[in-house]
Automatic annotation (TrEMBL):
Domain of life, source organism: Bacteria
Protein's name in the database: Ribosomal protein uS12 methylthiotransferase RimO
Reactions listed under catalytic activity: L-aspartate(89)-[ribosomal protein uS12]-hydrogen + (sulfur carrier)-SH + AH2 + 2 S-adenosyl-L-methionine = 3-methylsulfanyl-L-aspartate(89)-[ribosomal protein uS12]-hydrogen + (sulfur carrier)-H + 5'-deoxyadenosine + L-methionine + A + S-adenosyl-L-homocysteine + 2 H(+)
NCBIfam families xrefs: 30S ribosomal protein S12 methylthiotransferase RimO, MiaB/RimO family radical SAM methylthiotransferase
Root EC class: transferase
Annotated GO CC locations: ribosome
Source organism of the structure: Albidovulum litorale
Length: 456
């Protein structure tokens, strides 16, 4: 089975951050959070509920009375990783509750690990809590068990993922997420804004808006307005932009109304950054994927976006080696990349996924061909990235500080999302900087994916 390199897989969540010690005798729960940032938000919600009931969060297996493993089931390699994580938790702790996307296949999990305490599916919060109550009864102390206003976060304090909807209405042949998480269910806009306000009040400097299809937000609610907020991505972006933090949009399909977001970026209300899953460029490949086959029109849209907001950063992911992909189709993708000049790019080698309709397609591509095409695609993407970053040398840009140690400060520009994009490093004059600070730097050096600079 071919493996996608971990550093290029967008289904890997950031490492969790724990910073609240347990009191003596307090029941403690560990959490292993796999999968995409949407799953990370699910983990945060589970832990927030547990903290409200008096549980402490353990940062290691040995200190936990039980461990929750939030799994990913998007790719076969992700399923294998989830089973491995469950096995590790069983070995290190022995008392394991499984939830998440792979939990939609309980027999698959118990067949490999029959000793798990319970298996629940994605966003089944109540069932997870019930399983924890059975395994480790709560023992709350109302005088000392205080819950942070922003809830329990698994990311650094200065940024937070903000989930605006669940599920997806698309029927891409290679994807089983609608089968696992259902159709689009949007949160009311006023509820999203209320959560964002609490996060900003708690010190969050960057909100990362996530869903399975961000640009479809509110479609199921018929874009209803309630409490002064309309459930439409353009209105939501404008409202979030008024809170004073960075606002970054992920998983945006290139619907026509996306062009209405670009002026908000040009005005500085939201970050000039779009994460769009193009997946491929050849119309025949896109049709076999059951995705919109309008790559040429997409180039026109990209040009229009850049005309309105020249500083916009475009990130995307692609699949190479999809069933039936010919050398000509792959070459079309490479040529499209030359035209599109995307700033941030990730790539998967196609994998069969149990339950996906693409498995039944004819003319599957051999593994060695998939690897060759992945290598050629990433060589192209790397060359584009290197040239774009080299052009930033000598410019002044704003960055947000992520970490500071004895050797320097690791930061991100507005063009870089945490964990999946590049970094900007400050090696001198970094004393006094702290995570969450936003400072101006002059770029002095560039590599294929990262920048170096000094405070301006």
């Amino acid at each position: 089975m071919s493996q996608n390199p971990p550093n290029l897989r967008p289904d890997l969540a950031p490492k969790p951050v724990f910073d609240s010690p347990a009191r003596p005798g307090q029941p403690r729960i560990g959490m292993v959070s796999l999968g995409c940032p949407k799953a990370l938000v699910d983990s945060e919600r589970i832990l927030t509920r547990l903290r409200a009931e008096g549980y402490a969060i353990s940062p290691d297996y040995q200190g936990a009375d039980a461990v929750i493993v939030n799994t990913c089931g998007f790719l076969d390699s992700a399923k294998a990783e989830s089973l491995e994580a469950i096995g590790e938790a069983l070995t290190e702790n022995g008392r394991v509750i499984v939830t998440g996307c792979l939990g939609a296949e309980p027999d698959y999990i118990t067949g490999a690990h029959p000793s798990v305490l319970a298996v629940t599916g994605p966003h089944q919060y109540e069932q997870v809590l019930d399983a924890v109550h059975v395994a480790v009864p709560p023992a709350p102390d109302p005088f000392v068990d205080l819950l942070p206003a922003a809830g329990v976060k698994l990311t650094p304090r200065h940024y937070s993922y903000l989930k605006i909807s669940e599920g997806c209405n698309h029927k891409c042949r290679f994807c089983i997420i609608p089968d696992m998480r259902g159709r689009l269910v949007s949160r009311p806009a006023h509820a999203v804004i209320r959560e964002a306000e609490k996060l900003v009040e708690a010190g969050v400097r960057e909100l990362l808006v996530i869903s399975q299809d961000t640009s479809a937000y509110g479609l199921d609610l018929k874009h209803a307005e309630k409490n002064g907020h309309r459930a439409h991505i353009t209105d939501l972006a404008r409202d979030l932009g008024s809170l004073g933090s960075w606002v970054r949009l992920h998983y945006v399909y290139p619907y026509p109304h996306v062009r209405d977001l670009i002026p908000l970026m040009a005005e500085g209300l939201i970050l000039p950054y779009l994460d769009i899953p193009f997946q491929h460029a050849h119309p025949d490949t896109l049709k076999r994927m059951a995705r919109p086959a309008a790559a040429a029109k997409t180039l026109d849209e990209i040009a229009a976006w850049r005309a309105v907001c020249p500083d916009i950063t475009l990130r995307s992911t692609f699949i190479v080696g999809y069933p039936g992909e010919t050398e000509e189709e792959f070459q079309t993708l490479l040529d499209w990349m030359d035209e599109a000049q995307l700033d941030r790019v990730g790539c998967f080698q196609y994998e069969n996924v149990d339950g996906a309709r693409s498995n039944a397609l004819p003319d599957h591509v051999p593994d060695e061909v998939k690897q060759d095409r992945w290598d050629r695609f990433m060589e192209k993407a790397q060359a584009i990235s290197e040239a774009k970053l080299a052009a930033k040398v000598g410019t002044r840009i704003e960055v947000i500080v992520d970490t500071v140690d004895d050797e320097g400060a690791t930061c991100r520009t507005k063009a870089d999302a945490p964990e999946i994009d590049g970094n900007l490093f400050i090696d001198e004059d970094f004393k006094g900087l702290a995570p969450g600070d936003i400072v101006t730097v002059e770029v002095e050096e560039a590599s294929e994916y990262d920048l170096w600079g000094r405070r301006a």
